[in-house]
Amino acid sequence: MAAGISWRHVLLWALFVGGMCLLPYLVPSGTLRTFIFANYLAIFAMSWDFLSGRTGYISFGHPFLIGIGAYTTAILSYRFHVPVSISIPAAVVTTMLAGTLFFLPALRIRGSYFALVTLAFMELMYQLVQVIRPDLTGGTRGISGVKTLMSGATNNFYLSLGLMAVIAIFLWSLNRTRVGTALSAIGMNEESVRGSGLNTTKLKLFAFMVSAFVAGVGGAFYVHYLGSIAPRALFDINFLFTIIVASLIGGASTIIGPMAGAFFLTFLLEYLRPYLPGTERYFIYGTVALVLFMYQPKGLYQIIVDAAERVRGKPKPEAVRDPAA
C-alpha cells in the first residue's frame, strides 16, 4: 500500500462507489438524471480545486478549459465525422496544449491579477466562438445533434459515475504524494517553497496540466451526454460560480469536499426549481452557501469530519489543548 493510503481508505472508497452503483435500483430515472449532472459538476469542481484550491491561484476562467474540450470533440465528431474514440482524446490533448499556451504566462502573476486574467480568457473564448468560423462552432446557436455515447439515464449515470470515481481517486491519491504536499505549501507560502530549492513554476505548471486534463475529459464527455453545446450556457457566469462555490462550500483542497459541494448544490438548485423556476433561485442558493460558509469556512467536509468524531467520542483538538475551555 502506498504511503499515506491505508486499507481503511480503500474500504471507504469501495463503499462509496458500491453505494452509488445501487442508486439505479433505488431512485427514479428523474432523480438519476440529477445525479448525472452532479457527477459532472463534481468533475469540474475537482478540476478547479486541484489548481486553485491547492496552490491558491484562484481561476475565474475554468469554463475556458471545459469549453475547449467540449468544442473540440463536438466539431471533430459532428462536422468531420471523426470517431468519438479519437475525438475525445484529441479534445483532452487540445485542452492541455491550448490551456498551457494561454495560462502559462499568467502563472507568473497571482492574486486578483491572476483571477482577472483568467476571467478575460473566458470572456475572450466566449466572443471568439461566436464570430470566428461560425460554420464550425455554430456561432451564437452552438451545435446540436452531437453524437451521444449512451442512451438512457441508467447507462449515462454509470458512465458519469465511473468517470467521476476514477478522477476522484486519481486526484485524491496524487494529493497524498510529495507533489501534492508541495502544491499545498505553495498555497500557504510560495516564497518559502521557492527558498527550499523547489521549482515552483514547474509545480504550478504540473498542477495546471492536471487540472486542464480533468477539465478536458469532463468537458468532452459532458457534451456527448448533452448532445449539444451552446456558448451562452457554457460560458455563463452562473456556471463558473457554481463550480467555484461547489468547491468552497464542500471544502477546498480536499477532493472529497468539491464532490460533496457539487451534490449539495445540484440537488439544492433542482429542488428549488418548482418553487423558483427563474434565476432567483440562485439568490437562495447563494444565501445558503454564504451561511454555510460563515458557519464552517472549511466547508461540508469539515462538518462531516467533526460529526464523525463526535459520534466516536473523540474530543476536538481545542478541547485537548485546554480541558477547561
TrEMBL record:
Coiled-coil boundaries: none
Membrane topology: Multi-pass membrane protein
Membrane-spanning intervals of the chain: 7-26, 32-51, 63-80, 86-104, 111-129, 157-174, 205-225, 237-270, 282-304
Keyword Iron attached: no
UniProt GO cellular component terms: plasma membrane
Protein's cellular compartments: Cell membrane
Domain of life: Bacteria
CDD domains xrefs: TM_PBP1_LivM_like
Alphabetized UniProt keyword annotations: Cell membrane, Membrane, Transmembrane, Transmembrane helix
Molecular function in Gene Ontology: branched-chain amino acid transmembrane transporter activity
Protein name: Branched-chain amino acid ABC transporter permease
